[in-house]
Amino acid sequence: MFLPAEAIARFIVDPDEEVKKKIKLCGSSVEVPVKKIYRLESTEGTLKWRGTCIGWQSTSISPIDEFYVLSPGYYILVLPRVKFPIGVEGLILPRSSLLRLGVTLHGTKIDSGFEGDLAVLMIVPPIVKKLRIEKYCRIAHIIAWIVETEYKYEGTYQGSTL
Question: What confidence tens digit (pLDDT) does each residue in 33-43 have?
């Protein structure tokens, strides 16, 4: 069973007051804003059975007149900081507005007990000549559900700040 938006909103612990103002409750999901955007310049990674080593080079994008102006490419979007309790997992999904523009957002599962900044990959394809994203624009949905587990995420990204 999915948790209601009111419950999910309590897991968002970002200290930024502007982030908190932009959160929107949507029944079984919470729409969350983008806090920072990085353009991926290159990446190198190693996947191992226990953990992942990732090295990525990026350029921080600064808003111009309250808008991030993006050209085609790959971007890491930083979303609000969360603290998921043990026994609750979640999923990050794109807002349909992005899909209507031809832009894809690749979310991920949020593990039980995860605490840290959320991050997603956004791909702006060549067909999109320029994409303007307003500062603190709601960009993704978070849905969550209860699982019967004592598992707590203790991986590389626990407590991460991007």
Answer: 999 999 998 87
Q: Contact at 8 Å (CB) between 95 and 140?
A: yes
First to last CA, the chain: 31
Structural domains for the chain: 5-46+53-146 (2.70.40.10)
Report phi then psi at 139, rounded to 5: -125, -20
Total-model pTM: 0.91
| Angstrom distance (rounded) from CA 96 to CA 63 | 23
pLDDT digits over 104-117, tens only? Answer: 999 999 999 999 99
User: Is residue 98 a contact partner of residue 79, using CB atoms and an 8 Å limit?
Assistant: no
Region of 113 on the Ramachandran plot (φ > 0 left; ψ -120 to 50 alpha; else beta): left
- Alpha-carbon gap, residue 72 to 161, rounded angstroms: 26
Q: H helices of 1-155, where?
A: 5-9, 17-22, 96-100
pLDDT tens, position by position, 73-126: 999 999 999 999 999 999 999 999 999 999 999 999 999 999 999 999 999 999
Q: Can you give the C-alpha Rg of the chain in angstroms?
A: 16
